[in-house]
Specification:
The termini are far apart. The chain has 395 residues and is of the alpha/beta class. The strands form 4 sheets. The protein has an 8-stranded mixed beta barrel with strand order 8-9-11-12-13-14-15-16, surrounded by 5 helices. The chain has a 3-stranded mixed sheet with strand order 1-6-7. Strands 2-3 form a two-stranded antiparallel sheet. It is built from 16 helices and 17 strands. Bound molecules: ligand C2E and magnesium ion.
């Protein structure tokens, strides 16, 4: 186990207090465990507890280990009084049950470490078990991140463009969607690329590439012969929260000579959850230039309605999961209708994504939705195919 944000205590209150806190953690740990167990400190704020004499049945042993870990979590999370400072700290715990095969002590510690990082990823102050396959998954992620370093340089990234059409079926806008043509693994989807890049920090370089590429490419389509009105670009939360985000967007708009009112930035509700005031400032700065904002996957995050009230959004995108079931699930149908009505009352445009059937389109139209995106019209297309489609429409 590892203490969550221990560094903050060390940095803000000094190493003396940090050391005293570690001693108190060790104290509580030793009191919590049974005589046959062992508690030790590996170094820094990392501790290891060895539960021995658990059941021979792995299932039961796991239950016992979990109960033990819960007790530790609870004791260590109680407030500490250290030199008249009241401190709070929580642990993240990874559990490995062994023997499994013929692993040695180093392997076991590595497995516990992997599980502990899963607990951190899950939001800290929690427990995760090591599962077979986790190690491979962590290694695969690392390999992917290494490969990603070369992807931009070797021209392996590409943007696909998915049409957004109006009620008459005219292609007016497009959403730029990232693809990675990996030399061995083939086409990799953004749902794999983005989280890996966010974790490794490569997201900033990739996001800049996406902005430049999408704007430069769509600029060539925004003329009389194709009449593309706007390009929508997805913004990662990590990118959005960077200092200088608004300035960077402005700079790339200038470099590519794209009129800001031709750009829609799609952001997820969860991006706004972190720091609403900071988000508002950035959004307002870009809106003053004319950039439009869309809440992506509306309804699947938290507190969407509060955001709509406090932030000047231009559009919201009804999530695919609601559209998928509008024909079969009366609750989803009701929800979609409510979202459309509410958005219109707030003068926010609505776009429905994931439209796959005529019946879904009909329903959405009847309820007043005016923009659509989905396989019913087109899948995301490589730039050349998208361009042919645009030209055909206005031929
Ligand atoms: P998103 O923003 O919700 O993008 C729409 C996704 O829905 C796309 O998946 C698209 O292919 C898919 N889709 C569209 N219509 C339909 C339909 O009718 N049926 C079904 N089943 N799917 C449909 P894709 O391209 O795999 O992108 C997944 C997500 O990855 C995007 O979700 C977006 O959040 C993220 N993403 C994509 N490109 C970028 C990027 O350049 N930057 C960032 N930060 N995120 C990106
Ligand atoms: Mg999107």
């Amino acid at each position: 186990m590892d203490l969550d944000h221990f560094k903050i205590i060390n940095d803000s209150l000094g190493h003396n207090i940090g050391d005293l806190l570690l001693k108190e953690v060790a104290n509580r740990l030793t009191k919590q465990i049974r005589n046959e167990d062992t508690a030790s400190r590996l170094g820094g704020d990392e501790f290891v507890v060895l539960f021995s004499e658990l059941s021979g049945d792995p299932q039961l042993a796991a239950q016992q280990a979990q109960q033990g870990a819960h007790k530790i979590l609870k004791t260590l999370s109680q407030p500490y009084t250290i030199s008249s400072n009241m401190l709070h700290i929580t642990p993240s715990i990874g559990i490995v049950i062994f023997p499994m095969n013929d692993e040695n002590a180093d392997d076991i510690l590595k497995f516990a470490d992997t599980a502990m990082y899963r607990a951190k990823d899950a939001g800290r102050n929690t427990i995760r078990f090591f599962l077979p396959g986790m190690e491979q998954a962590a290694e695969a992620q690392l390999r992917l991140q290494n490969d990603l370093r070369l992807a931009i340089r070797n021209n392996q990234l590409a943007l696909y463009f998915q049409p957004q059409v109006n009620i008459e079926g005219h292609l007016l806008c497009a959403e730029a969607l990232l693809r990675w043509s990996h030399p061995e693994q083939g086409m990799i989807e953004p749902n794999t690329i983005i989280p890996a890049a966010e974790e490794s920090g490569q997201i900033l370089q990739i996001s800049e590439w996406v902005l430049k590429q999408a704007l430069a490419q769509s600029k060539t389509w925004m003329n009389e012969s194709t009449n593309l009105q706007r390009i929508a670009i997805n913004i990662s939360s990590v990118h959005f929260h960077q200092v200088g985000f608004a300035y960077q967007v402005k700079r790339i708009l200038q470099e590519t000579s794209v009129n800001p009112n031709r750009l829609t930035l799609e952001i997820h509700e969860n991006t706004l959850a972190d720091n609403l005031e900071e988000a508002k400032e950035k959004i307002l700065a870009l809106k003053r230039l004319g950039v439009r904002f869309c809440i992506d996957s509306f309804g699947v995050g938290y507190a969407s309605i509060a955001y709509l009230r406090r932030l000047p959004m231009d559009e919201l995108k009804i999530d695919r999961s609601f559209v998928r079931d509008i024909e079969s699930d009366p609750k989803d149908a009701q929800l979609v209708q409510t979202i459309i009505t509410m958005a219109h009352l707030m003068e926010i445009e609505v776009i429905a994504i994931g439209v796959e059937t005529e019946a879904q389109l009909q329903f959405l139209r009847d309820k007043g939705c005016k923009m659509f995106q989905g396989y019913y019209f087109n899948h995301p297309l490589p730039a050349d195919q998208f361009e042919s489609l645009l030209k055909k429409q206005f031929a």
